[in-house]
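step=encode ok
step=design start
structure_in=
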C-alpha cells in the first residue's frame, strides 16, 4: 500500500486525541493459491480504494484531468502498480497469514490488474508465499498504524477449503484504544500501533485429504 499516495490535503486531517482515525478506506479481496499438498503458495490481493483517496491519487499523478474517473488505456498503464512502487524491506503488505504464533513469509508483489470502477481505483497484485498448510491458517488484513482501514470483503480459499470472514469487533477495539490513550501522553499515543485491533480476519478450514 502506497500510503504517501495521498496528498498533503489528506495527511493534514488531524486525528482527535485519544481516538483512532484512519485516513484511507480500502475494500480487500484475497484469493489463496495452493499446491497439490494443500499448502498456500501465493496470494492475489485486490484493493479497492475509497472515492476520496482515488481522487487524491489521480490528482497527485496528474491523471484524469477532466475528473470524469474514466481513464484512457495510457493512463491506466501509468497507474498500474502505483501502490507497489514504495515497498520498504520491513513492510508486510498489510496482509498476514498466521498459524498459531507463526506468521508466513510472503514475498514481494507483482501487479496483476488495474481499473477504475465507480470512481474507485481497483488494483490487484500477486505475492508468493513460503508454503504453509491452508487448513487452520488465519488470514488478516490490517495496517498496523491504522492510517488505512481495510475491510475484508471476499476471501477465495483453495479448492476443497472454505473461508468465513470474521469482521473486527470495532466497539471492543474502540474501548481498548480509549484505555491505551488514557495510559500514555498524546505524543506517545500518536505512534502506538492499533491497527491489529481493527483487523478483519478469515480462518481457512479444509476437508481432510483422502
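sequence_out=
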Amino acid at each position: 500500500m502506497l500510503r504517501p499516495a495521498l496528498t498533503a490535503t489528506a495527511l493534514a486531517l488531524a486525528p482527535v486525541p485519544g481516538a483512532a482515525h484512519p485516513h484511507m478506506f480500502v475494500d480487500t479481496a484475497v484469493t489463496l493459491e495452493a499446491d497439490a499438498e494443500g499448502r498456500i503458495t501465493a496470494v492475489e490481493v485486490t484493493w479497492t480504494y475509497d472515492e476520496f483517496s482515488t481522487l487524491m491519487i489521480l490528482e497527485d499523478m496528474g491523471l484524469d484531468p477532466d475528473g470524469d474517473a474514466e481513464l484512457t488505456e495510457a493512463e491506466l498503464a501509468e497507474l498500474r502498480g502505483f501502490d507497489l512502487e514504495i515497498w520498504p524491506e520491513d513492510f508486510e503488505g498489510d496482509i498476514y497469514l498466521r498459524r498459531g504464533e507463526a506468521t508466513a513469509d510472503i514475498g514481494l508483489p507483482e501487479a496483476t490488474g488495474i481499473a477504475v470502477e465507480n470512481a474507485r481505483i481497483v488494483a490487484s497484485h500477486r505475492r508468493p508465499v513460503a508454503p504453509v498448510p491452508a487448513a487452520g491458517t488465519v488470514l488478516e488484513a490490517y495496517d498496523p498504524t491504522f492510517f488505512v482501514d481495510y475491510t475484508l470483503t471476499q476471501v477465495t480459499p483453495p479448492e476443497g477449503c472454505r473461508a468465513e470472514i470474521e469482521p473486527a469487533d470495532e466497539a471492543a477495539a474502540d474501548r481498548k484504544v480509549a484505555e491505551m490513550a488514557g495510559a500514555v501522553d498524546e505524543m506517545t499515543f500518536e505512534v502506538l500501533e492499533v491497527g491489529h485491533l481493527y483487523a478483519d480476519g478469515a480462518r481457512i478450514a479444509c476437508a481432510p485429504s483422502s
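step=design ok
step=annotate ok -> The first helix runs from residue 8 to 11.
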